Amino acid sequence: MYFKQFYLNCLAHASYLIGSGGEAVVVDPQRDVDIYIDEAARNTLNIRYVIETHLHADFVSGHHELAERTGAVIVFGARANAEFDHLAVSDGDELCLGDVVLRALETPGHTPESMSWLVIDGSSPGRPWRVLTGDTLFIGDVGRPDLVGSKGYTPEMMAGMMYDSLHGRILVLPDETEIWPAHGAGSACGKNLSKETSSTLAVQRVMNWALQPMSREDFVRALTTDLAEPPKYFPMDAEINRRGARSLADLALRHLTPAEGHALIAGGAIVLDVRDATSFGRGHIPGSINIGLGGQYASWAGQVLAADVRIVLVADSREGADEGVTRLARVGLENVDGWIEEGIQAWDDAGFDIAFTPQWTVAELHGCTEPGLRILDVRTENEFRGGHLPFASNIPLHELPRRLSEVDRTAPLAVVCEGGYRSSIAASLLERAGCTTLVNVTGGTSAWARAGFPVVT
Protein backbone atom coordinates (compact mmCIF):
# COMPACT_ATOMS: atom_id res chain seq x y z
CA MET A 1 0.00 0.00 0.00
CA TYR A 2 1.13 3.51 -0.82
CA PHE A 3 0.13 6.02 1.88
CA LYS A 4 1.11 9.70 2.10
CA GLN A 5 -0.10 12.62 4.19
CA PHE A 6 0.07 16.13 2.72
CA TYR A 7 0.10 18.84 5.39
CA LEU A 8 -0.76 22.45 4.53
CA ASN A 9 0.64 24.52 7.39
CA CYS A 10 -1.18 27.78 6.70
CA LEU A 11 -4.56 26.06 7.15
CA ALA A 12 -3.31 23.30 9.50
CA HIS A 13 -4.93 20.91 7.03
CA ALA A 14 -4.02 17.28 6.32
CA SER A 15 -5.01 15.42 3.16
CA TYR A 16 -4.07 11.95 1.96
CA LEU A 17 -3.15 9.90 -1.09
CA ILE A 18 -3.62 6.14 -0.73
CA GLY A 19 -2.81 3.67 -3.49
CA SER A 20 -2.65 -0.03 -4.33
CA GLY A 21 -2.79 -2.08 -7.51
CA GLY A 22 -2.25 0.95 -9.71
CA GLU A 23 -5.28 2.78 -8.32
CA ALA A 24 -5.51 5.57 -5.77
CA VAL A 25 -7.87 7.61 -3.64
CA VAL A 26 -7.38 11.20 -2.46
CA VAL A 27 -8.98 12.10 0.87
CA ASP A 28 -9.95 15.68 1.83
CA PRO A 29 -8.00 17.45 -0.95
CA GLN A 30 -6.96 21.09 -0.75
CA ARG A 31 -8.15 23.56 -3.40
CA ASP A 32 -5.03 23.37 -5.58
CA VAL A 33 -4.83 19.74 -6.70
CA ASP A 34 -1.68 19.46 -8.84
CA ILE A 35 0.23 17.98 -5.88
CA TYR A 36 -1.99 14.87 -5.89
CA ILE A 37 -1.99 14.46 -9.67
CA ASP A 38 1.80 14.79 -9.82
CA GLU A 39 2.38 12.43 -6.87
CA ALA A 40 0.04 9.82 -8.33
CA ALA A 41 1.80 10.01 -11.70
CA ARG A 42 5.23 9.56 -10.06
CA ASN A 43 3.96 6.38 -8.42
CA THR A 44 2.08 5.07 -11.49
CA LEU A 45 -1.29 5.41 -9.79
CA ASN A 46 -4.61 6.39 -11.36
CA ILE A 47 -6.82 8.42 -9.04
CA ARG A 48 -10.10 6.52 -8.94
CA TYR A 49 -11.89 8.14 -5.98
CA VAL A 50 -11.91 11.48 -4.17
CA ILE A 51 -13.27 11.09 -0.65
CA GLU A 52 -14.55 13.92 1.51
CA THR A 53 -14.92 13.10 5.20
CA HIS A 54 -17.47 15.94 5.50
CA LEU A 55 -18.43 19.33 4.04
CA HIS A 56 -15.39 21.23 5.21
CA ALA A 57 -16.08 24.70 6.56
CA ASP A 58 -12.56 26.02 7.01
CA PHE A 59 -11.33 25.60 3.44
CA VAL A 60 -12.62 25.11 -0.09
CA SER A 61 -11.89 21.61 -1.33
CA GLY A 62 -10.51 20.70 -4.74
CA HIS A 63 -12.70 17.61 -5.11
CA HIS A 64 -14.60 19.01 -8.10
CA GLU A 65 -11.53 20.00 -10.11
CA LEU A 66 -9.68 16.81 -9.18
CA ALA A 67 -12.60 14.69 -10.41
CA GLU A 68 -12.87 16.67 -13.66
CA ARG A 69 -9.15 16.29 -14.40
CA THR A 70 -8.80 12.60 -13.50
CA GLY A 71 -12.24 11.09 -14.04
CA ALA A 72 -12.38 10.09 -10.38
CA VAL A 73 -15.64 9.54 -8.53
CA ILE A 74 -16.36 11.94 -5.64
CA VAL A 75 -17.45 10.18 -2.45
CA PHE A 76 -19.49 11.79 0.35
CA GLY A 77 -21.49 10.57 3.28
CA ALA A 78 -25.12 10.08 2.29
CA ARG A 79 -26.27 12.96 4.52
CA ALA A 80 -24.10 15.57 2.76
CA ASN A 81 -26.66 16.27 0.02
CA ALA A 82 -23.95 17.41 -2.38
CA GLU A 83 -25.32 19.15 -5.48
CA PHE A 84 -23.26 17.29 -8.10
CA ASP A 85 -22.76 13.72 -9.23
CA HIS A 86 -21.18 11.71 -6.44
CA LEU A 87 -21.21 8.35 -4.70
CA ALA A 88 -23.17 8.58 -1.45
CA VAL A 89 -21.98 6.06 1.14
CA SER A 90 -23.31 4.83 4.47
CA ASP A 91 -21.87 2.98 7.43
CA GLY A 92 -20.05 -0.21 6.41
CA ASP A 93 -19.81 0.56 2.69
CA GLU A 94 -16.43 -0.33 1.21
CA LEU A 95 -14.16 0.87 -1.59
CA CYS A 96 -11.47 -1.48 -2.92
CA LEU A 97 -8.12 -0.49 -4.41
CA GLY A 98 -5.90 -3.47 -5.16
CA ASP A 99 -5.10 -5.02 -1.78
CA VAL A 100 -6.54 -2.07 0.17
CA VAL A 101 -10.07 -1.87 1.55
CA LEU A 102 -11.49 1.45 2.73
CA ARG A 103 -14.50 0.98 5.00
CA ALA A 104 -16.88 3.86 5.76
CA LEU A 105 -17.74 4.63 9.38
CA GLU A 106 -20.54 7.09 10.07
CA THR A 107 -19.21 9.41 12.77
CA PRO A 108 -21.55 12.44 13.06
CA GLY A 109 -20.78 15.05 15.69
CA HIS A 110 -18.69 17.74 14.01
CA THR A 111 -21.25 17.76 11.20
CA PRO A 112 -24.20 15.42 10.59
CA GLU A 113 -22.61 13.88 7.50
CA SER A 114 -19.13 13.34 9.01
CA MET A 115 -17.50 10.06 8.01
CA SER A 116 -14.33 8.33 9.13
CA TRP A 117 -12.60 5.79 6.90
CA LEU A 118 -10.92 2.62 8.08
CA VAL A 119 -7.93 1.70 5.90
CA ILE A 120 -7.13 -2.04 5.82
CA ASP A 121 -4.05 -3.29 3.98
CA GLY A 122 -4.72 -6.85 2.84
CA SER A 123 -1.12 -7.32 1.68
CA SER A 124 0.15 -6.78 5.26
CA PRO A 125 -2.39 -8.50 7.52
CA GLY A 126 -0.23 -8.00 10.59
CA ARG A 127 0.05 -4.25 10.12
CA PRO A 128 -2.14 -1.98 12.33
CA TRP A 129 -5.19 -0.51 10.70
CA ARG A 130 -5.32 3.18 9.95
CA VAL A 131 -8.43 5.32 10.40
CA LEU A 132 -8.86 8.66 8.66
CA THR A 133 -10.96 10.55 11.17
CA GLY A 134 -11.60 13.81 9.33
CA ASP A 135 -12.74 16.37 11.90
CA THR A 136 -14.22 13.77 14.25
CA LEU A 137 -11.15 12.79 16.27
CA PHE A 138 -8.09 15.02 16.27
CA ILE A 139 -4.80 14.43 18.03
CA GLY A 140 -5.59 15.73 21.51
CA ASP A 141 -9.12 16.92 20.77
CA VAL A 142 -12.34 16.37 18.82
CA GLY A 143 -14.21 18.48 16.28
CA ARG A 144 -16.27 21.41 17.48
CA PRO A 145 -20.04 20.77 17.49
CA ASP A 146 -21.41 24.24 16.71
CA LEU A 147 -20.95 24.76 12.97
CA VAL A 148 -24.33 23.53 11.75
CA GLY A 149 -26.75 25.62 13.83
CA SER A 150 -28.31 26.99 10.66
CA LYS A 151 -29.26 23.41 9.70
CA GLY A 152 -31.42 22.95 12.80
CA TYR A 153 -28.87 21.25 15.07
CA THR A 154 -27.90 22.69 18.45
CA PRO A 155 -24.31 22.31 19.71
CA GLU A 156 -25.65 20.02 22.43
CA MET A 157 -27.31 17.76 19.85
CA MET A 158 -24.11 17.53 17.83
CA ALA A 159 -21.97 16.96 20.94
CA GLY A 160 -24.22 14.05 21.86
CA MET A 161 -23.73 12.60 18.39
CA MET A 162 -19.96 13.04 18.80
CA TYR A 163 -20.00 11.07 22.06
CA ASP A 164 -21.92 8.25 20.38
CA SER A 165 -19.57 8.25 17.38
CA LEU A 166 -16.46 8.08 19.53
CA HIS A 167 -17.79 5.28 21.73
CA GLY A 168 -19.63 3.34 19.04
CA ARG A 169 -17.21 3.65 16.12
CA ILE A 170 -13.73 4.74 17.21
CA LEU A 171 -13.06 3.42 20.71
CA VAL A 172 -14.10 -0.10 19.68
CA LEU A 173 -11.12 -0.30 17.29
CA PRO A 174 -7.87 -2.01 18.35
CA ASP A 175 -5.48 0.08 20.44
CA GLU A 176 -2.77 -0.10 17.78
CA THR A 177 -5.02 1.55 15.17
CA GLU A 178 -3.30 4.62 13.73
CA ILE A 179 -5.24 7.91 13.87
CA TRP A 180 -4.88 10.26 10.88
CA PRO A 181 -7.05 13.40 11.19
CA ALA A 182 -7.82 16.22 8.76
CA HIS A 183 -6.38 19.03 10.91
CA GLY A 184 -3.69 19.89 13.44
CA ALA A 185 -2.75 22.74 15.75
CA GLY A 186 -3.94 26.13 14.52
CA SER A 187 -7.21 24.93 13.03
CA ALA A 188 -10.39 26.62 14.25
CA CYS A 189 -12.26 23.30 13.93
CA GLY A 190 -11.31 22.34 17.49
CA LYS A 191 -10.14 23.92 20.75
CA ASN A 192 -6.72 22.46 21.63
CA LEU A 193 -5.37 20.42 18.77
CA SER A 194 -1.89 18.92 19.07
CA LYS A 195 1.00 19.81 16.80
CA GLU A 196 1.30 16.09 16.07
CA THR A 197 -0.37 15.07 12.82
CA SER A 198 -0.93 11.39 13.64
CA SER A 199 -1.05 9.11 16.64
CA THR A 200 -2.41 5.76 17.79
CA LEU A 201 -5.66 5.03 19.52
CA ALA A 202 -3.74 3.70 22.55
CA VAL A 203 -1.95 7.03 22.98
CA GLN A 204 -5.13 9.02 22.46
CA ARG A 205 -6.95 6.98 25.10
CA VAL A 206 -4.43 8.42 27.56
CA MET A 207 -3.69 11.89 26.14
CA ASN A 208 -6.97 13.05 24.60
CA TRP A 209 -9.40 14.60 27.09
CA ALA A 210 -12.41 13.58 24.97
CA LEU A 211 -11.60 9.87 25.25
CA GLN A 212 -11.39 9.82 29.05
CA PRO A 213 -14.10 7.96 30.98
CA MET A 214 -17.06 10.30 31.49
CA SER A 215 -20.80 10.30 31.14
CA ARG A 216 -22.51 11.45 27.97
CA GLU A 217 -23.88 14.46 29.87
CA ASP A 218 -20.43 15.47 31.15
CA PHE A 219 -18.96 15.10 27.66
CA VAL A 220 -21.67 17.28 26.11
CA ARG A 221 -21.15 19.92 28.78
CA ALA A 222 -17.38 19.96 28.30
CA LEU A 223 -17.53 20.06 24.50
CA THR A 224 -20.03 22.93 24.39
CA THR A 225 -18.38 25.14 27.04
CA ASP A 226 -16.22 28.14 26.06
CA LEU A 227 -16.61 27.67 22.32
CA ALA A 228 -14.89 30.44 20.37
CA GLU A 229 -16.94 32.22 17.74
CA PRO A 230 -16.51 30.38 14.44
CA PRO A 231 -14.79 32.33 11.65
CA LYS A 232 -17.31 34.15 9.50
CA TYR A 233 -16.23 32.50 6.25
CA PHE A 234 -17.00 28.96 7.46
CA PRO A 235 -20.65 28.79 6.25
CA MET A 236 -19.66 30.14 2.83
CA ASP A 237 -16.92 27.52 2.37
CA ALA A 238 -19.21 24.65 3.39
CA GLU A 239 -21.76 25.70 0.77
CA ILE A 240 -19.08 26.08 -1.93
CA ASN A 241 -18.01 22.52 -1.13
CA ARG A 242 -21.60 21.32 -1.37
CA ARG A 243 -21.92 22.89 -4.85
CA GLY A 244 -18.37 22.17 -6.03
CA ALA A 245 -15.76 24.90 -6.53
CA ARG A 246 -14.69 26.07 -9.95
CA SER A 247 -11.23 25.38 -11.34
CA LEU A 248 -8.31 27.51 -10.19
CA ALA A 249 -7.47 28.02 -13.86
CA ASP A 250 -10.51 30.32 -13.99
CA LEU A 251 -8.83 32.70 -11.54
CA ALA A 252 -6.06 34.01 -13.79
CA LEU A 253 -4.28 37.01 -12.25
CA ARG A 254 -4.16 40.24 -14.26
CA HIS A 255 -1.39 42.85 -14.23
CA LEU A 256 -2.58 46.32 -13.29
CA THR A 257 -0.88 49.61 -13.92
CA PRO A 258 -1.03 52.09 -11.01
CA ALA A 259 -3.65 54.08 -12.93
CA GLU A 260 -5.81 50.97 -13.41
CA GLY A 261 -5.42 50.10 -9.74
CA HIS A 262 -6.29 53.64 -8.69
CA ALA A 263 -9.46 53.53 -10.79
CA LEU A 264 -10.52 50.19 -9.26
CA ILE A 265 -9.92 51.50 -5.75
CA ALA A 266 -11.95 54.60 -6.53
CA GLY A 267 -14.71 52.25 -7.66
CA GLY A 268 -14.80 50.43 -4.31
CA ALA A 269 -12.08 47.77 -4.49
CA ILE A 270 -9.90 47.31 -1.43
CA VAL A 271 -6.13 46.93 -1.50
CA LEU A 272 -4.79 43.75 0.08
CA ASP A 273 -1.07 44.17 0.77
CA VAL A 274 0.51 40.75 1.31
CA ARG A 275 4.00 41.98 2.24
CA ASP A 276 5.46 41.64 5.72
CA ALA A 277 4.67 44.19 8.43
CA THR A 278 8.00 45.99 8.15
CA SER A 279 7.69 46.52 4.40
CA PHE A 280 4.08 47.58 4.79
CA GLY A 281 5.00 50.08 7.50
CA ARG A 282 7.67 51.70 5.33
CA GLY A 283 5.10 52.63 2.70
CA HIS A 284 1.74 51.45 1.39
CA ILE A 285 -1.31 52.57 -0.54
CA PRO A 286 -3.59 54.52 1.82
CA GLY A 287 -6.46 52.37 3.07
CA SER A 288 -4.64 49.09 2.40
CA ILE A 289 -5.26 46.05 4.55
CA ASN A 290 -2.03 44.25 5.43
CA ILE A 291 -2.20 40.46 5.73
CA GLY A 292 1.27 39.06 5.19
CA LEU A 293 1.90 35.80 3.38
CA GLY A 294 4.26 34.77 6.19
CA GLY A 295 1.46 33.90 8.64
CA GLN A 296 -2.01 32.37 8.60
CA TYR A 297 -2.82 34.55 5.64
CA ALA A 298 -5.83 32.72 4.21
CA SER A 299 -7.58 32.27 7.56
CA TRP A 300 -7.20 35.93 8.49
CA ALA A 301 -8.24 37.09 5.04
CA GLY A 302 -11.41 35.04 5.42
CA GLN A 303 -11.99 36.60 8.82
CA VAL A 304 -11.55 40.28 7.98
CA LEU A 305 -12.55 40.57 4.31
CA ALA A 306 -16.14 40.52 3.09
CA ALA A 307 -16.92 37.62 0.75
CA ASP A 308 -18.06 39.91 -2.09
CA VAL A 309 -15.37 42.59 -1.85
CA ARG A 310 -13.27 43.34 -4.93
CA ILE A 311 -9.54 43.00 -4.26
CA VAL A 312 -6.43 44.64 -5.69
CA LEU A 313 -3.23 42.88 -4.57
CA VAL A 314 0.10 44.43 -3.72
CA ALA A 315 3.03 42.00 -3.49
CA ASP A 316 6.80 42.06 -3.83
CA SER A 317 6.74 39.81 -6.89
CA ARG A 318 4.52 37.99 -9.34
CA GLU A 319 5.22 34.79 -7.39
CA GLY A 320 3.97 36.42 -4.21
CA ALA A 321 0.86 37.70 -5.97
CA ASP A 322 0.12 34.25 -7.42
CA GLU A 323 0.55 32.69 -3.99
CA GLY A 324 -1.77 35.31 -2.55
CA VAL A 325 -4.49 34.48 -5.08
CA THR A 326 -4.20 30.72 -4.57
CA ARG A 327 -4.37 30.99 -0.79
CA LEU A 328 -7.38 33.32 -0.98
CA ALA A 329 -9.12 30.78 -3.21
CA ARG A 330 -8.53 28.11 -0.58
CA VAL A 331 -10.99 29.94 1.67
CA GLY A 332 -13.41 30.94 -1.07
CA LEU A 333 -12.24 34.51 -1.79
CA GLU A 334 -12.06 34.72 -5.58
CA ASN A 335 -12.75 38.37 -6.44
CA VAL A 336 -9.20 39.50 -7.20
CA ASP A 337 -9.19 42.14 -9.94
CA GLY A 338 -5.42 42.03 -10.37
CA TRP A 339 -2.12 43.01 -8.84
CA ILE A 340 -0.15 46.20 -9.19
CA GLU A 341 3.10 45.26 -10.86
CA GLU A 342 6.16 46.68 -9.10
CA GLY A 343 3.84 47.54 -6.23
CA ILE A 344 4.54 50.56 -4.05
CA GLN A 345 7.46 51.84 -6.09
CA ALA A 346 5.31 51.99 -9.22
CA TRP A 347 2.49 53.61 -7.22
CA ASP A 348 4.86 56.26 -5.88
CA ASP A 349 6.44 56.88 -9.28
CA ALA A 350 2.93 57.47 -10.69
CA GLY A 351 2.49 60.33 -8.23
CA PHE A 352 -0.13 58.73 -5.98
CA ASP A 353 -0.12 59.20 -2.21
CA ILE A 354 1.80 56.86 0.08
CA ALA A 355 0.90 56.12 3.72
CA PHE A 356 3.24 54.96 6.50
CA THR A 357 2.74 52.98 9.71
CA PRO A 358 5.52 53.47 12.31
CA GLN A 359 6.96 50.23 13.68
CA TRP A 360 8.06 50.46 17.31
CA THR A 361 10.21 48.04 19.24
CA VAL A 362 9.04 47.08 22.72
CA ALA A 363 11.87 49.22 24.12
CA GLU A 364 10.51 52.25 22.29
CA LEU A 365 7.04 51.53 23.61
CA HIS A 366 8.33 51.05 27.16
CA GLY A 367 10.22 54.33 27.03
CA CYS A 368 7.39 56.31 25.46
CA THR A 369 6.22 59.34 27.46
CA GLU A 370 3.62 60.57 24.97
CA PRO A 371 0.55 61.74 26.91
CA GLY A 372 -2.63 59.79 26.33
CA LEU A 373 -1.00 56.88 24.52
CA ARG A 374 -3.29 53.85 24.56
CA ILE A 375 -2.34 50.23 24.05
CA LEU A 376 -4.64 47.83 22.17
CA ASP A 377 -3.91 44.10 22.46
CA VAL A 378 -5.55 42.14 19.61
CA ARG A 379 -4.79 38.63 20.84
CA THR A 380 -7.57 36.30 21.95
CA GLU A 381 -9.21 36.80 25.31
CA ASN A 382 -7.47 33.73 26.74
CA GLU A 383 -4.08 34.95 25.56
CA PHE A 384 -4.77 38.36 27.08
CA ARG A 385 -5.76 36.84 30.42
CA GLY A 386 -2.54 34.84 30.46
CA GLY A 387 -0.43 38.00 30.55
CA HIS A 388 -0.52 41.42 28.94
CA LEU A 389 1.10 44.83 28.97
CA PRO A 390 0.07 47.17 31.81
CA PHE A 391 -2.90 49.43 30.94
CA ALA A 392 -3.60 47.51 27.70
CA SER A 393 -7.17 46.98 26.54
CA ASN A 394 -8.24 43.92 24.56
CA ILE A 395 -10.24 43.53 21.35
CA PRO A 396 -9.42 40.20 19.64
CA LEU A 397 -8.52 40.65 15.99
CA HIS A 398 -11.38 38.48 14.74
CA GLU A 399 -13.82 40.82 16.54
CA LEU A 400 -12.16 44.10 15.53
CA PRO A 401 -13.98 44.70 12.21
CA ARG A 402 -17.33 44.91 14.02
CA ARG A 403 -15.96 46.71 17.09
CA LEU A 404 -14.05 49.55 15.43
CA SER A 405 -16.44 52.06 17.01
CA GLU A 406 -15.02 51.16 20.44
CA VAL A 407 -11.61 52.56 19.52
CA ASP A 408 -10.88 56.28 19.99
CA ARG A 409 -9.62 57.17 16.54
CA THR A 410 -8.09 60.49 17.58
CA ALA A 411 -5.93 59.30 20.51
CA PRO A 412 -2.37 57.98 20.00
CA LEU A 413 -2.54 54.18 19.83
CA ALA A 414 0.00 51.33 19.99
CA VAL A 415 -1.26 48.00 18.64
CA VAL A 416 0.24 44.78 19.98
CA CYS A 417 -0.19 41.02 19.59
CA GLU A 418 2.05 38.03 20.31
CA GLY A 419 4.69 38.77 17.70
CA GLY A 420 3.61 41.63 15.40
CA TYR A 421 1.73 39.79 12.65
CA ARG A 422 -1.85 40.15 13.89
CA SER A 423 -1.18 43.65 15.18
CA SER A 424 -0.12 44.77 11.70
CA ILE A 425 -3.43 43.47 10.31
CA ALA A 426 -5.26 45.32 13.10
CA ALA A 427 -3.27 48.52 12.58
CA SER A 428 -4.12 48.53 8.88
CA LEU A 429 -7.84 48.05 9.66
CA LEU A 430 -7.74 50.88 12.18
CA GLU A 431 -5.85 53.15 9.80
CA ARG A 432 -8.41 52.41 7.10
CA ALA A 433 -11.16 53.30 9.61
CA GLY A 434 -9.61 56.71 10.27
CA CYS A 435 -7.22 56.27 13.18
CA THR A 436 -4.83 59.17 12.72
CA THR A 437 -1.94 58.32 15.06
CA LEU A 438 -1.00 54.71 15.58
CA VAL A 439 2.03 52.42 15.69
CA ASN A 440 2.53 48.70 15.28
CA VAL A 441 4.63 47.07 18.02
CA THR A 442 7.12 44.63 16.49
CA GLY A 443 7.95 41.57 18.52
CA GLY A 444 4.74 41.96 20.51
CA THR A 445 4.12 40.62 23.98
CA SER A 446 6.74 37.90 23.48
CA ALA A 447 9.50 40.47 23.01
CA TRP A 448 8.07 42.56 25.85
CA ALA A 449 8.28 39.63 28.28
CA ARG A 450 11.76 38.62 27.08
CA ALA A 451 12.95 42.16 27.75
CA GLY A 452 11.86 41.82 31.37
CA PHE A 453 9.21 44.53 31.20
CA PRO A 454 6.23 44.19 33.57
CA VAL A 455 3.38 41.86 32.64
CA VAL A 456 -0.11 41.88 34.15
CA THR A 457 -2.15 38.68 34.51
Describe the protein.
The mean pLDDT is 95. α3 (155-170) packs across α5 and α9 packs across α10 (318-329). The protein has three domains: 2-242, Ribonuclease Z/Hydroxyacylglutathione hydrolase-like (Metallo-beta-lactamase, Chain A, 4-Layer Sandwich); 252-345, 3-Layer(aba) Sandwich (Oxidized Rhodanese, domain 1); 359-450, 3-Layer(aba) Sandwich (Oxidized Rhodanese, domain 1). β14, α8 and β15 form a beta-alpha-beta unit. It is of the alpha/beta class and 457 residues long. Helix content is 28%, strand content 21%. The chain has a six-stranded mixed beta sheet with strand order 1-2-3-4-5-6, covered by helices on one side. Strands 7-8-9-10-11-12 form a six-stranded mixed beta sheet. Strands 13-17-16-14-15 form a five-stranded parallel beta sheet. The protein is built from 15 helices and 22 strands. The protein is globular, with a radius of gyration of 24 Å.
